[in-house]
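REVIEWER CHECKLIST
Item 1: Sequence provided? yes
Item 2: Single chain? yes
Item 3: Sequence as submitted:
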Amino acid sequence: MTTLDVVERAMDLLLAHDMAGFAGLWAMDGTIEFPFAPDGYPRRLDGRAAVADYLRDYTDHVDLRAITSRTVHQTVDPEVAVVEFEVDGVAVRTGRPYRMRYISVITVRNGEIAGYRDYWSPQAAAEALGGADELAALGGDR
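Item 4: Structure as written out by the authors:
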């Protein structure tokens, strides 16, 4: 799969609430980074297993309903795409709307995600989810 194919598949799996499938897109040694992560939230996860563990109960916290906008920028490096997207959903525990904008820099090698840098607003997520403790629970601070 090309970089753009993997990006499209990732978006489809998120909407399908298939977190195991989403994590399965990662290379065995692929990483995910959260440059804006607050205290108590991981800044980096190494390996497919760590990504799968991180995503394991994501849908217990967030019910994604739609991707309301998406722009994919193919960079001069064919392995790298920058994806700007906005989601609409519901924070499960609070019932509050979960509307979040993301910018993700995704590197794909051999049809698998080798690197994923996820830029999002921890403050907006905490407000929707019901506070910093719920955000920390989503981040794996169990």
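Item 5: Key structural point noted by reviewer: The first strand starts at residue 26 and ends at 33.
Item 6: Recommendation: ____
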